[in-house]
C-alpha cells in the first residue's frame, strides 16, 4: 500500500443508479475512523482506469450503460492490470455481471463481459425486487448478509469462483446462492449501499488492502442491520 | 349539453358517485376510485372525454403536480379548466378529472412518466409539456433511459406541440422526435443522470453552473437546441427577448423553472405572459406542498421530496438558521428500496439542528452519521415537534411520510 489508501470508483457516470456512492462513502468513513488516510478517485467512462488503486468499486445501472461500461473496461484494460497487481474489487449488480464471460443485453441478447470472474449471466423470467438475507461462506467469517436486490439477472457460477453466500430470503444468483468471490474480487446483486448494511464486508475489503484493523463504534450500523434482518427473518 | 354517448355519460356519473363516497368516508380524495369505476364501464371513456377539450399533458420525474397546477391556473384566464389537481396521474385519475368538469373547454393533465405514451395516444392531446427525468423509486419505476426512448417513439409522427426543458439532455432526447418543439432553458440542478449522451453513450461536455449553459456530446452531433424561452435568475425571458420578473409565491429555483415552463405552455395555447403570469403568482401551495402548518407556536414548513433530485430542490427552499425535521418511509408509493438516500448529499445540513424520524429513520440515521452530520433520532414526528422550541421549523418528508404529517395536521391545500 502507498501512503494513503486509494479507493477507485469506476464509471459513476454510467453505473451508479442505486446509491452506489454509498459503498464509496462507507469505505472512506471506516478507513478514516481508523486513522488511515484515504484518496477517492472517481473515474468517468471517458477516462482511463488507473492501475495504482487499492480497492476498486463498480456499481449498478440500466442495460445500455451496462453494455457501454463493459465495452470501455475491455478496451481500457486498466482494471485487469490493477487486479493482476493484487488490488481488490467489489462489483455490484450490473457491475457484477460485467465481470463474467457474458451477460444479457436489452433484448436478452448475449453481451460479452470482461472475464475477471468465472461466471456467466443471462436474463431471467421475472424481476427480483426486494430485501435479501443470506449466510456468508464460512471461510470469510462474516455475519449474515443483508441488503436490497432489484434485477432480472440469473448468474451461473463456474468452478473458478466460490458462492459469497446462501440465500435465506431473496433471489441472488437464482440457484440458492448470492454473489461470489475469487481472490480479492467480490461480486454481489446487493445494491450500492450494501456495505452500509454489511460493515464487516467493508472491513474485509479494507483488511485485504491495509492489513489488520482496530474495532470502531458500529452502533448505527448494528441498529440498522438488526432492524432489517428482523424485518425479513421473522422467527 | 354533453356530447358524450349515453353509456359514457352513465360511466362518468357512476364514477363521480364513487368519488363522492370515497371522500365522504374519509378514504381518500376520490380522484382514483371515481376514475376506476368509470374506466371499468367504458374503456374508451378517456378518449371520448378528451376529444371535447384542448388538452395539455404534463410529465416529468419532479414538479409534475406543481407545474400542472401552474398551467391550469394560467389557462383559467381563457376559460374553465379540467385538471387532476391531486396528483392522481394515471388514466383512472384522468377520467375522473375530465368527467368532473365536462363543460370545461380546456384540460391540463399531470401524467405519470410511464403512462405518457398510452395517454398521448388515447387523448391525442395538442400540447405535451416535459420538464426533467432523473432516478426515482427504482424498485417500481421504469429505468429512465428506457423511458426517454418510449417518449421518442410516442411523439414521433404525432402533431402534438411539445414544450420541453432543453437543459435536461435526456428530456431533450426524449422530445426531439416531435414535429414541433418549443425549447425552454429551465435549468437542471441534478446532473448525476446525464453525464452520458443518450444518443450514443459518449461523454456530454457541459458548462457548469451558468444560466442558459450549453451542452454537447463529444462524440456525436447530439447537442443542446437553441432555447426559445430562458429562465434567468428571477426572470423569464420570452422568445421576443422580453424579460418577465416572476415574483412567485412558490419558493425556490425549481418552482421558477416550473413557472417558465408553464408560461411557455400557456403561450402554446395563445395566452401571453402578461395575462398568464398574474395567475401563476396567485398559486401559493399545491396539494399541501409548501404549506405552512402551526401547532403550539411551532410553525412548520412542509416540503415533499421523493428522490435525490427532489431533495436537492427541497434543500434550496429551507433556511440554514432553522431546525429541520427529516422523515423517511419506504412503503409502496415511496419505493421500498432506500438506496437513494446514498445519492443525496446531506452535508449541506452540517451544523443545523436536525431531527430524524419516519419508518426508515435508521437508514437515514446511518446515512447522516457517514456524512458527518449531527442529528437527533426520534420515534415520531410529534416527538420532534414537542422537542423543538416554538418558532419556524423546516420539514422534508418523502411521499407517505409527508401524507401522514398532512393527515395529522389537516389537509390544508
Labels describing this entry:
heterodimer; A: 235 residues; alpha/beta; Rossmann fold; nine-stranded mixed sheet; two-stranded antiparallel ribbon; 7 helices; globular; B: 413 residues; UDP-N-acetylmuramoyl-L-alanine:D-glutamate ligase; Protein-Tyrosine Phosphatase, Chain A; 2 domains; six-stranded mixed sheet; 14 helices; 17 strands; 37% helix
Set down the secondary structure blueprint:
The complex is a heterodimer of chains A (235) and B (413).
Chain A (H helix, E strand, L loop, with lengths): L4 E6 L10 H12 L5 E6 L11 E4 L4 H14 L1 H7 L3 E5 L1 H5 L3 E3 L5 E3 L6 E18 L8 E13 L4 E8 L7 E6 L2 E4 L5 H4 L1 H12 L8 H14 L3
Parallel strand pairs in A: 1-2, 1-3, 3-4, 4-11
Antiparallel strand pairs in A: 5-6, 7-8, 7-9, 9-10, 10-11
Chain B lengths: L5 H19 L6 H11 L3 H7 L2 E6 L4 H12 L5 E3 L7 H10 L5 E5 L5 H8 L3 E4 L13 H12 L5 E5 L3 H7 L4 E6 L18 E3 L8 E3 L11 E4 L2 E3 L5 E3 L7 H16 L4 H10 L9 E4 L2 E7 L3 H10 L6 E4 L26 E4 L3 H11 L4 E2 L3 H7 L3 E7 L1 H11 L4
Task: Write up this protein.
The complex is a heterodimer of chains A (235) and B (413). Chain A has 235 residues and is of the alpha/beta class. Chain A has one domain (5-232): Rossmann fold (3-Layer(aba) Sandwich). Chain A has 7 helices and 11 strands. In chain A, helix 1 (21-32) packs across helix 6. The radius of gyration of chain A is 16 Å and the shape is globular. The mean pLDDT of chain A is 95. By secondary structure, chain B is α/β, with parallel strands linked by helices. Chain B contains 14 helices and 17 strands. The two termini of chain B are 32 Å apart. Chains A and B meet through helix 1, helix 2, strand 7 and helix 7 of A and helix 7 and helix 12 of B. Chain A: Substrate binds at residue 127.
